[in-house]
Write a structure and sequence with these properties.
434 residues, 9-stranded mixed β-sheet, 12 helices, 26% strand
Length: 434
């Protein structure tokens, strides 16, 4: 009998680790791969798994996210939906969400329905492709109260993630966040046999990392949150559930990347454009869905492009060189530009010649990237105005800066913030000397 599953996608908090990309938008609304947003990844996984009752929970900078979610529509007979649950004052609560568990608690009315069997909880800032029906099968086969998706990792990466300790049947006995010492790592050691016995090649991976994908029996989740004042799943709900409930793992052996930092976001994006890519963003059998924009095809004039994504509606000038980069929707790139190892997020709108003339008459560059611009190792957010002969390159390998007129440098990555205005002949190197 097909079970009724409600999906809750946690939109995260302020997204401080992705700042300044989250300065004007919620973390799930950050653009990725030129034409998508982070939220499209979990929603597409749900749709491709036959799950179409989806709530997105968020409370910070939610306008652009709400606008994007309106593009998801299902036919009238499927009863499917994608809706956003923003923090709000009600008769039961007037406070902001205090954590992941509290965010779910404040929206209990949507999961207390009689026809809900399971609640699937996902994160809004991860890159992966997963068939959740297989996870449901694992959950039912184990007669579990809670199932946690887990990916095998090597010892070197275990210290960066939450690692689970299990028994031979796959039941979770303990959980340790970012184990560092040999003693801590030994405590959560799984070994290769468990992975091999389930039909996967261990490849030296001996630890099981928490993916942040959780499947609850509805009543188990209700009990866990109504009988306690827990606010966080990882720190409070799961340790308690492990002691009192049957919590099992679902083994996942595919690409999975938490892209919650500037460096991980930057590297994961550029890896998408490699040949072959480390992760296929939209294969035919499981496409990634997004907003339909009805943009024209991109236009090139004698440009040289290699190992790059070029999204819809772009204009790339004569003599431009683009290497190992992501060029987002509606990007305008002038003549003889050189763009390497960079993410250009594009524009929210297409400007007319008269609009460009107004900007130039006001002493500002037109929206887009001017002629003879060099950009290397940067994330350039949307709607920037970059004049001719600008150089955006981290010549001195600066790792971090405070906010400046262009944005900031984080984890060694230059981040030009949304709507930044850089005049002709501006140079990052000279700017950092001031």
């Amino acid at each position: 009998m097909k079970k009724n599953v409600i999906v809750l996608i946690l939109g995260g908090g302020r997204g401080t680790r992705l700042y300044p990309l989250t300065k004007m938008r919620a973390k799930p609304a950050v653009p990725i791969a030129g034409k998508y947003r982070l939220i499209d990844i979990p929603i597409s996984n749900c749709i491709n798994s036959g799950l179409n009752k989806i709530y997105v929970i968020t409370q910070f900078n939610s306008v652009s996210l709400h606008h994007h979610l309106k593009s998801y529509h299902f036919d009238a007979f499927s009863h499917g939906f994608v809706e956003m649950l923003a923090a709000q004052q009600t008769n039961d609560s007037s406070a902001w969400y205090q954590g992941t568990a509290d965010a779910v608690r404040q929206n209990f009315n949507f999961i207390r329905q009689r026809d809900v069997d399971y609640v699937l909880i996902l994160s809004g800032d991860q890159l992966y492709r997963m068939d959740f029906q297989k996870m449901i099968e694992t959950h039912e086969r184990n007669n579990a109260d809670v199932t946690i998706a887990t990916v095998p990792v090597q010892k070197e990466r275990a210290s960066e993630l939450g690692i689970m300790r299990i028994n031979e049947e796959g039941q979770v006995l303990g959980f340790l966040e970012k184990p560092k010492t040999d003693e801590e790592l030994e405590h959560v050691y799984t070994g290769e046999d468990f992975i091999r016995d389930r039909g996967y090649d261990p490849q030296g991976r001996e630890y099981l990392a928490n993916m942040g994908v959780y499947l609850f029996n509805r009543q188990t989740l209700v009990d866990a949150l109504t009988k306690t004042d827990y606010t966080d799943f990882g720190k409070e709900v799961f340790p308690a559930a492990i002691r009192t409930r049957k919590v099992c793992v679902h083994l996942f052996d595919g690409y999975w990347e938490d892209i919650g930092t500037i460096r991980s976001f930057y590297e994961a994006n550029l890896a998408l454009a490699q040949n072959p890519p480390t992760f296929e963003i939209s294969p035919p059998e499981a496409p990634t869905y997004s907003k339909m924009r009805y943009l024209p095809a991109s236009r090139f004039e004698n440009a040289t492009i290699s190992r790059s994504f070029i999204a819809d509606g772009c204009q790339i000038g004569n003599g431009a060189v683009i290497e190992n980069s992501i060029i987002g929707i509606r990007s305008k790139i002038g003549r003889n530009c050189v763009i390497r190892n960079s993410i250009i997020m594009g524009q929210d709108f297409i400007t007319r010649p008269e609009d460009d003339k107004l900007e130039i008459n006001a002493g500002r560059p037109a929206v887009g990237i001017g002629d003879c611009v060099i950009i290397d190792g940067a994330i350039v957010d949307k709607n920037v105005q970059i004049g001719h002969n600008v150089v955006i390159r981290n010549d001195n390998n600066v790792q971090n800066t405070q906010e400046r007129e262009f944005g900031m440098i984080r984890d060694g990555v230059i981040c030009v913030e949304k709507g930044a205005v850089l005049p002709p002949y501006w140079s990052l190197t000279e700017s950092l000397k001031k």
